[in-house]
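Sequence in, structure out. First:
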Amino acid sequence: MIEIKRGDELGEDYRRRITEVLVRGFAEDFAFFSSDPQKLANAFKHMILLNRFYVALVEGEPAAIASVTVGTQECFAPRWSEIRRHLGTVHGTISHLVVRSQFLGAPDEARPGLAEIGFVTTAPAYQGRGVATALMQYILALPDFDEYVLRDIKSTNAPALGLYAKLGFTEYQRRPVRFARRAGFTDYVSMRLG
């Protein structure tokens, strides 16, 4: 059975496990900073704003996560010193800069009623079991929102793009990636519903 809770409802005891889902789900994106998921979880757990994340639980264990923000809200509050402490001076500094430049900032069209859904990921052990679908359906049923956006999805992420299309999202923006050959994909895709 899949149960959905907001991160702050689960409390601090779940912070580490929520972060582990994040770093394992985006392991490829974080590989430059470290290939060790435990080290990444240590570096990033402080920055997660629990009240901005929804968590799909399977038998009490976090199986999938997604952030939901409105207006100028952020889902992360990174501290440079904490990231550097776990990743070292060079990788920690670069990681902090990447988090601040790539993961923070509201969409241009931010307004009341528009929810940005981000960082949707499923722990590898739970992929293909409908957990992300259940999580997204829960989020889409939340009151107070008349439009949803998902920004900067890798063009090569076919499972995510397929899920979002199945839920009714349509592409509204595509922007090329700098250094596409090195990145391994060509475009970021943004989608909307509503």
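Second:
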Amino acid sequence: MRRFYKLMLSGFGTGWLPLAPGTWGAAAAALLVWPLTIWTPGLLNLELSGLIIAFLWIGVLGSDQMTAEWGEDPSQTVIDEMVGMWIALLGLPMLWPWWLAAFLLFRFFDIFKPLGIRSLEKIGRGWGVMLDDVLAGVYANVVLQVALLQF
């Protein structure tokens, strides 16, 4: 099970890439689901929702299990960035400019942690690892949904 958690928590290995592993993890998350826009465009939000729920659960449990070995919220854990990125993409048009905007906004909220995001890290353990990125994804999505209303 530890091998499974290492693979999943590291975003299929992207968390081990040098320089800004969270950025690599968020980019990998978008690239992983981009083919779904072609294969099953009408089901994208349903599929994203399923991925979010599954990876959130794996992230919480896996982070709890790996804390002893990796420490609290280590840089190689990027499953949280993947979940946050997928939340940022929910309900957006399947066009690359919107996806790029989602990526940039999500990374902004994830890195700078404004508006209560930082306080969620203090929860600790698996939920603390995951929830700050969930909220960063929600904020990015809200900004983009408001922008969608304008266009």
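Remark: The mean pLDDT is 94.
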